[in-house]
Description:
By secondary structure, chain A is α+β, with helices and mostly antiparallel strands. Chain A has two helices and three strands. Chain A has a single domain, classed as 2-Layer Sandwich (Mth169, Chain: A), CATH 3.30.1280. Chain A starts with a strand and ends with a strand. The interface between A and B is medium-sized, with 30 and 30 residues. Strand 2 of chain A pairs antiparallel with strand 2 of chain B, so a sheet runs across the interface.
Amino acid sequence: MTAYTATVTVRLQHGVLDPEAETTQQALERLGFELDALRSADRFEIDLDADDEQAAAERADEMAHRLLANPTIHDYDVAVEARE
Amino acid sequence: MTAYTATVTVRLQHGVLDPEAETTQQALERLGFELDALRSADRFEIDLDADDEQAAAERADEMAHRLLANPTIHDYDVAVEARE
């Protein structure tokens, strides 16, 4: 077994309204910053042990599918790297 | 001016309690997943125009410093890449 960290990034699907991101963008603009767009996402860093990188990615993918993301409104991606 | 996307990742500092991450970890364990730890973070993807990559990174850093992160409890990092 090797120790891995899987990073799951959960984003709203394109077209789903994100009032929190809109408010954050407006607040930055009120502070004088210029920006074209702002998107927010949730990031989960999961430490787990697995036989290999592919097994770690599959388990993290299933965690995202079953709990971390809502398939109706979210997209997600998974990245895995070995952990010291 | 070039179009960039700056990604700001905001994490709780080590030692700051994160009950939401704890609850998420427990929920995954109740579903039968094995994991050693789970950390959550906020991720902001900011589209902006700047003269060069360094200018884009500096502006995103200032946005994080002034609004996106709370220096008392958060650490953050900034990554910039050119956007098509």
